[in-house]
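queue> pop job 88
queue> type: inverse folding (structure -> sequence)
queue> payload:
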């Protein structure tokens, strides 16, 4: 793999006096980070991640095909999931354990751990997949769920790590990831504010750039549980941290809201076919959905503009047509004192503004004036 393709670009160290108030302890750069030379900042387009995850069902060919459609749909990056299941799931039969049993039709096996084993690629397959992404010139990385997987991805030269919500409190894994030196994208589903503060404090002690994604740990996530205004809170509390959304919602419209609130990194589960087996396929965005999201976010960036209120040059002619200027409402004789009833605002607005009416009332006409003639300051003394 070419180092330049997957060289993570470090942002400036982000340090805080206290994560409890989010106040910088020194002058730091503005809110931005880079992944594989792609700048992510408030002024930049949305960074859209097609989370292929395990939706490939363990098929390398299917993964290749999903990479292709994600690129065509406007994804900035494709992302996968990497596990050594025996190092992730404890032995036992309770939900979340390796031996948990279910008749879930989307599983590849009735035992959860075995289901997960069947979705994993060998090291050689991972090499092939990342090489394929390199050839297609798309940024590709993965979520490591354990230390062995993180080290494997590091050896493969990924340009970033995604930390799943389930590992948001796994600070040993986060520290290990930060030590690699590539940017981190950290989901915060299921977290409270103190836990997010801990994440920020841990990573801020390193030189690794990172982003925080609002997330709701429900699959699929209902719209009323997304709490997108957390993005506003993150932006205020951590003023130098890029924010965004990792979502399990079936639609993309809420993501557009998150973009308007200031999020810039967005991760959506992605599939070529929602009917495929797999834990996440049934609520993932399809290529058509993802393409629509790309277009909507790009148009929204243009629409947001800037906060300074000023007339756009393109507004000028339309504004003049629709604005009003003062005209004489009746015939005026020389020497006549001007009253409010003598004046009327009419389109177009090329003349004395109606706002100036009080500067005319009480003055005297310098000459005879024709009804409905546009007011001129030379009409009065």
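queue> result:
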């Amino acid at each position: 793999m070419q180092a330049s393709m997957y060289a993570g670009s470090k942002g400036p160290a982000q340090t805080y006096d206290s994560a409890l108030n989010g106040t910088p302890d020194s002058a730091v750069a503005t809110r931005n980070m880079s992944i594989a030379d792609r700048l992510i900042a408030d002024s930049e387009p949305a960074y859209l991640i097609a989370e292929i995850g395990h939706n490939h069902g363990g098929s390398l060919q299917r993964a290749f095909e999903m990479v292709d459609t994600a690129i065509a749909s406007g994804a900035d990056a494709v992302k996968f999931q990497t596990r050594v299941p025996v190092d992730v799931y404890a032995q036992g039969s309770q939900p979340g354990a390796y031996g948990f049993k279910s008749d879930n039709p989307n599983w590849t096996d009735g035992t959860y751990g075995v289901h997960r084993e069947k979705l994993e690629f060998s090291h050689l397959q991972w090499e092939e997949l990342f090489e394929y992404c390199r050839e297609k010139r798309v940024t590709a990385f993965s979520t490591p769920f354990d230390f062995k997987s993180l080290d494997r991805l590091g050896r493969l030269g990924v340009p970033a790590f995604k930390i799943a919500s389930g590992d948001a409190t796994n600070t040993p894994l986060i520290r290990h990831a930060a030590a690699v030196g590539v940017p981190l994208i950290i989901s915060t589903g299921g977290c409270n504010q103190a836990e997010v503060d801990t994440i920020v404090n841990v990573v801020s002690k390193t030189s690794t750039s990172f982003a925080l994604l609002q997330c709701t740990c429900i699959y699929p996530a209902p719209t009323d549980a997304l709490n997108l205004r957390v993005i506003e809170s993150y932006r205020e509390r951590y003023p130098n941290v890029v924010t965004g959304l990792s979502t399990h919602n079936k639609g993309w419209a809420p993501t557009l809201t998150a973009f308007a609130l200031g999020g810039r990194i967005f991760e959506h589960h992605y599939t070529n076919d929602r009917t495929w087996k797999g834990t996440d396929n049934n609520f993932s965005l399809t290529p058509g959905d993802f393409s629509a999201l790309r277009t909507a976010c790009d148009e929204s960036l243009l629409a947001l503009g800037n906060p300074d209120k000023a007339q756009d040059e393109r507004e000028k002619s339309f504004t003049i047509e629709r604005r009003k200027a003062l005209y004489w409402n009746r015939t005026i004789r020389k020497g006549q004192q001007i009253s409010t009833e003598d004046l009327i605002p009419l389109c177009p607005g090329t003349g004395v503004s109606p706002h100036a009416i009080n500067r005319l009332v009480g003055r005297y006409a310098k000459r005879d004036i024709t009804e409905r003639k546009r007011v001129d300051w030379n009409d009065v003394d």
